[in-house]
Specification:
- The complex is a heterodimer.
- Chain A is of the alpha/beta class.
- Helices cover 36% and strands 26% of the residues of chain A.
- Chain A has a six-stranded mixed beta sheet, sandwiched between helices.
- In chain A, a hairpin with a 2-residue loop joins strand 1 and strand 2.
- In chain A, helix 3 crosses helix 4, helix 4 crosses helix 6 and helix 6 packs parallel to helix 7.
- Chain A starts with 6 loop residues before the first strand and ends in a 5-residue tail after the last helix.
- Chain B is an all-alpha fold.
- Chain B has a single domain, classed as Methane Monooxygenase Hydroxylase, Chain G, domain 1, CATH 1.20.58.220.
- In chain B, helix 3 runs antiparallel to helix 7.
- The chains are: A alpha/beta, B mainly alpha.
- The interface between A and B is medium-sized, with 15 and 17 residues.
């Protein structure tokens, strides 16, 4: 693992337009390995749009235009030579609503390693499925029913299955777009604990509307407002002594 | 003042916490007013009232702490709201201590009424109590209006209380040398002055908390603290006598 303080993703002067709508304005952000970076801000502020730039999810939106640069380990991810499928293996994503494939638990996790050719034989694939489920904290709950459908699991289990599926292809970065908003407090606590455990091996970026969740899970927080980052810093500082008035008004629930 | 919270009931709770602090500070300030009158007039009844008021002050401290803890649990406050609520617990504890010192003055009224009056000391004690009452009023005013300049100004005033105390200390030492038969009385007066001086320190702490609530950082000035009585010695044949 690389030096944890090293920024592995560098966004510089990123602008995103949906037709005439200027959704992201001049965003600079460094995302480091070993760190959970939380993106917070009111609805429509651009945090999810920015998150989706990091693994080029916005490519599928025809009206979307991106300028500026985003590099992963020094390499421009919007370079012509980049294979987007490979990029998304390195930069995995977990969505708001758990979205397991309508396949068995085993196949959900094995899907990525199979298409990327990560396993030479079934024993190696078994090993990847085992370690991924174990890292996502799901192994003990599903080990006896790996052939049942992933969609039959509870919401919290499904979300951990999606996390297992993401880490099965050995990514460097995990993007999470409100991963707990559809979960109850216990399932949320389990996912948050998992995020803390995964942090040492990955760079994690999480979009959340829960201020308390951002405060609990992240070390760095970026406050987005109307497409700009108004404040970025240590989470402990942002939540005790924000420097920007707008940040304070937002996190304390005041009229801006 | 910052814009209102979207949750108006949260604003209501913050306001109720603040008005409890104001009410508590009024009680404490009144304790000093009455303690002084009780000492001057050797009025045991009024002294008892000061001690009774202290029970109310203690009760308010507990109430404020309980409400603040509840707000932390239920509202999960952050940023200046969090600093405000946590500091309010400490301000309340500070006022409670200031109240305790007033109670201690009231306890000594009985002893004082046995002895004769030492005029020079009572002049200093009058002034110290006047200072303390103003400090309490002004620091709580600064807390309510979020006025840092006023808080710093109160913070600096502690020096005057310390100076009065140091002067009184020296006078008392000299007095005890001259009239050893009055050592008991002078010792009580010394304790009275020391208690008021400690109350000043707590008022200064409150000023620092007001600064912290507003600024999110600690007051970086050097504390105006020079209690020279810690190293004041007067020898029996000293010229000070």
């Amino acid at each position: 693992m690389e030096n944890t303080s090293k920024a592995m993703i560098k966004a510089r002067n990123v602008n995103v337009y949906y037709d005439d709508n200027h959704a992201i304005k001049n965003v600079d952000l460094d995302i480091s390995s070993g760190t959970v970076t939380a993106l917070i801000g009111p609805s429509g502020c651009g945090k999810s749009t920015f998150l989706r730039c990091i693994n080029r999810m916005n490519d599928s939106i025809p009206s979307c235009r991106i300028t500026g640069s985003i590099t992963l380990d020094g390499q421009d991810i919007y370079d012509k030579t980049i294979d987007v499928v490979q990029l998304r293996a390195r930069v995995g994503m977990v969505f708001q609503k758990p979205n397991p494939f309508p396949k068995s638990i085993y196949d959900n996790v094995a899907y990525g390693p199979r298409i990327h050719g990560f396993a030479r034989n079934s024993a190696e694939l078994d090993e990847i499925v085992f370690t991924s489920l174990q890292k996502s904290g799901l192994w003990d709950e599903v080990k006896d029913r790996l052939d049942t459908s992933g969609t039959a699991l509870s919401g919290g289990q499904q979300q951990r299955l999606c996390i297992a599926r993401t880490i099965a292809v050995n990514p460097e970065v995990i993007l999470m777009d409100e991963p707990c908003s559809a979960l109850d407090p216990i399932a949320t606590a389990i996912i948050e604990e998992l995020i803390e455990e995964l942090r040492s091996r990955f760079a994690i970026v999480i979009v959340t509307h829960s201020m308390q969740q951002a405060a609990r899970v992240s070390q760095k927080t970026a406050f987005f407002y109307l497409g700009e980052i108004l404040e970025f810093g240590d989470t402990s500082e942002i939540f005790t002594n924000p420097k920007v008035e707008k940040t304070k008004d937002y996190i304390t629930g005041r009229y801006g | 003042m910052s814009p209102h919270h979207i949750s108006s009931s949260f604003d209501d709770e913050l306001n109720s916490l603040r008005s409890k602090i104001v009410k508590m500070s009024n009680l404490v300030e009144e304790q000093y007013k009455n303690a002084l009158i009780a000492m001057q007039n050797k009025d045991q009844e009024l002294a008892d009232k000061v001690r009774e008021t202290d029970r109310l002050v203690d009760q308010m401290d507990m109430e404020i702490e309980k409400q603040a803890i509840q707000m932390i649990a239920l509202r999960s406050p952050v940023a200046d709201d969090l600093r405000d609520i946590v500091s309010t617990i400490k301000i309340s504890a500070g006022l409670e201590r200031i109240g305790d010192y007033a109670k201690n003055l009231a306890k000594r009224v009985k002893v004082l009424s046995h002895g004769k009056t030492i005029s020079v000391s009572s002049r200093f004690i009058d002034q110290m109590i006047k200072q303390i009452r103003e400090m309490i009023t002004d620091v709580i005013d600064a807390y309510i209006t979020r006025d840092i300049d006023k808080a710093i100004e109160v913070w600096r005033r502690d020096e005057e209380v310390d100076n009065l105390y140091n002067n009184l200390f020296r006078e008392m030492l000299a007095y005890m040398m001259k009239e050893p038969q009055n050592i008991a009385l002078a010792t009580h007066l010394l304790f009275i002055a020391k208690n008021i001086e400690r109350a000043g320190d707590h008022a200064t702490n409150i000023a620092e908390l007001v600064y912290y609530i507003n600024e999110g950082e600690l007051l970086a000035l050097k504390r105006p603290k020079d209690d020279s009585s810690n190293y004041t010695v007067i020898e029996p044949n000293s010229e000070n006598l």
